[in-house]
Structures are given as C-alpha cells and as structure tokens.
Specification:
Blueprint lengths: L3 H19 L4 H8 L3 H8 L7 H11 L3 H5 L8 H7 L2 H5 L9 H10 L1 H17 L4 H15 L5 H13 L10 H11 L3 E3 L14 E4 L4 E4 L5 H16 L17 H18 L2 H13 L5 H11 L3 H16 L4 E8 L7 E7 L20 H12 L6 E11 L5 E10 L6 E9 L2 H6 L10 E4 L19 H20 L3
Parallel strand pairs: 1-3, 6-9
Antiparallel strand pairs: 2-3, 4-5, 4-8, 6-7, 7-8
Length: 495
Amino acid sequence: MLSHGQIVRLIFGLKLRELRQERGLTPAEMARACDVSVSYLNEIEKGKKYPKADKILSLSKVLGVSYDQLTSLTLSRKLEPISELLQSDLLKEFPLEMFGLDPMRIVELIADAPAKMNAFISTLFEIGRNYEMRQEHFFLAALRSYQEMHDNYFEELEQDIRTFTVEQKLNAAAPFDTSQLERVLTDKYGYSLDRTLLGEYASLGRLRSVFQPKTRRLLLRPGLSSAQEAFVLGREVAFHYLNLRERPYVNASFPVRSFDEVLNNFKASYFAGALLMEEEALVRDLQKLFEATKWDENQWLGLLTKYNVSPEMFMQRLTNLLPRHFGLQSLFFLRFDQTDAAAPYELTKELHLSRLHNPHGNELHEHYCRRWISLRLLAELRLQAKPGAPTIAIGAQRSRYYGTENEYICLTLARASTATEPAVSVTVGLLCDENLKRKVRFIDDPAIPLRIVNETCERCPIPDCEVRSAPPVEIERQQRQQQLAEAVAALVHGA
C-alpha cells in the first residue's frame, strides 16, 4: 500500500509540474531559477523527493503562488480525480504487494502521464457511480481475484490448521467436537460465551454472533444449529491464532472498514471450514463419490451429516480441494438468496476460478435464468416445504449455454422453508471436459438431466422458454440496432 509520505510527495510533484507547465517554463529554466539541478527537480515532480522548506519557498516565488498553496494536498480541478484516488482509503489500505504490484511503479505511472491517468481514473469513478459501486464492492472483488490467483487453496492456512490441531491436542475426526473449540476460546484466549443475551434483540435477527472485544465476551444467538455454532467458534479461534487484528465483530455482512478486514475475515472463515472438514479425510470421501458411476444424492447428503456442516460450508470447502487434489481448476461457485417466495433471486456470492463462466453478479436488476438448477431447486423445495425446520436437498444438472459448446455439471445444495421464510442455494459448477470425465465417473449418468441455459431472461433468445420471467428486451434492442446499422450501411453504399 502507498504510505502517507509517498502520497504527499506525489501530490506535491503533480502540482509543481502542472504550475510549471502553466507558466510556460521548461524543467531547465525552472531549475535554474530555483538554483537546483534538473535531475533533482525531475525527482520532485515524479514524487520521489520532497524539498526542504527553503527550496519550497524558492519554488513558490518563481511560480507566483504562496508557500501554503504549493504544499496543500489540493490539486486543481483538472487533476481532482487523481487527488481523490490518492487520498482515499481505497489506495491507502489496498495491499498492492499482495497482487505483485510495486507501489512506486503506480506512483511513476501517475507522475509520468498525469493527464492520461486522470482520464482513466475519471472513467473508473464514473463507472463506479453509474453502477453504485461502493468501496466495499471493490474490496470484495479484489478478494475474489486473490482467491482466483491461488485457485482458492492456501497451503499456509492448511498448515496452520494442522499445527493448531497438534498443539491443542484436538481430535479432528468427523464430526468435529465443538466443545474442543469452546475450551480453547475460554482457557487459552480468555473468552466467556453468552447464549441468551443476543436472543433479546429481535431486530438483530440476522446476527448469529457478536464479539465484545473489551470483555472478550462472545454472544451467540439462541437456537443456532451445531454446525453454525461450530463455524462461529472456529472463526473466533482463527482470529486469535492467526493474529488477525483488524476484523469484523459480527458475522453478518456490514459495511467494511478496510481491505485488511475483508481479507482477515476470509482467512478466519477458511480456517474454520478447513478445521471442521479435515483435508485428507474429505479428499478420501470425495474420491469415493467420484468413483461411483451413478449419481447418488443420499451419499452426498451423508457427507453433510458426517461432518456436521452447513451446505455453504461444504460447497466452499469443495472449491478449496477440487483444484488442488483433483485438478479441477475450471469451476465456479455461486450462492443465491431469496428473502421469501415473492422476492427476486439475488446472487450474493460468486467465485470463478478460470474467469470464463457465467453467471456473474450484475447490477442491472435483470432476471436470472430459471433453468439453472440453483433456482429450480429452490422453487421445488418451497413447494414441498412444511412449517418448522427448513428442508435441505441436493441436485445435479448438466447445463449447456445456449448457442455454445460450453457445458458444466452443476452440483447444488439448497435450503428452503415456507413461502414467507428465506431460502438459499449454493452451487459448484465444473466444466465438462475430458479432464472431468477422467476424474468424475458419474458425469455420464443418464439420471442427471441436461438443460439448455442462459444468463438472464432479458438477454436470452431461447424460444418458447417454459420458465421465462421477463421478455428478451435486450435481445430485441440489439436486433433493432443491427437492423438500423444494416439500413444505414445500405444507404451509405447506395444500395
């Protein structure tokens, strides 16, 4: 990340260059008038050096501005977007080094061509405003890119889990004994656990846990399933064991304060999921499932029971292990939420390891394809649901995108209750290629249906779709544009 000193030097240099050019002075003329070398002036303008007070005074006199005006962190209107970016929390907190970016190279790019960089940054800001992108959206997108860079498998975290298990003499056999984590939190980290207080706050129904750092008290919502509580406890252990200081204090999604908070929350969640589903044991179980020639829903649901985890935890763990142990890098992960049966489906989490797959979350308020098993399974579960505990089901579908050869086998776990209750589905999609056919034998099971799918109804030309939720207005608009372009071309060429 860029330090405050780097940002101050860069803003000063940009301002100095702009004022010098406005006065029509060459670098040599400016250097001569201020009694400095041209190379030193060049380093100042590029943000590499910051002059002493006497030199700043000399520069301000030559340029005809006050000392305070030259040293302020305000750039002209023309360079305002660069100033906004440099002084934003986004650039200050974003770990450029994690993505292999040298902060000084960013400084050089801005300093070498400020006008072009300004235009580029202005364009990004304009796109962000049009799509209502907030800082947290950028941080979450950066996290997804970080996961994709590593195929969502992190050897250091896996080793940390193995070391922690040995140090604390834990039994990692499935299902993981949650009382072990409670013991570590209370004995090693001085926690106290409260399983009643949070239940008194009805308006905070989304919160499963709240950590009070001053008293080290962890509030747990009454009625959590053992899987939910195990994940919360595992995440709390991870924050301390991995020394992740900047962290959220609640489990729900709230506006984030920094990229470090987003990254640390991911690491703690990864730790918790991997702790509850030990790597070697789960890989062995998956190998048995993949060697079967028939798709068996009960065997897959049996793993949820064996490891006592939620559908999302299980599917997230698959995205860690399938690329590493089975060579299945071409996969995507999707989570859809629906607050009640009348509400739209929202794509709330996604990961695309090969960066080639649809769907992607969009801000266009369009209707996602109802032919996806992710949505179909939710609708079917709602019809079957009875009051009481939600129903969990798993399904498989081969999905081929309309007009292409792109085909994926999608494995979906869904949880739904009555029409007035929230529902969620999580899907792992695997590219149907020769590699998958060698690793997953049930891929050719005729019991797995094949459906032609698309991305959104508004962009889908599939005729007579039985589950269409909106007319193909975007397709119709493109057709009108094509017809107009052809008519103009014919007119231009005298046809």
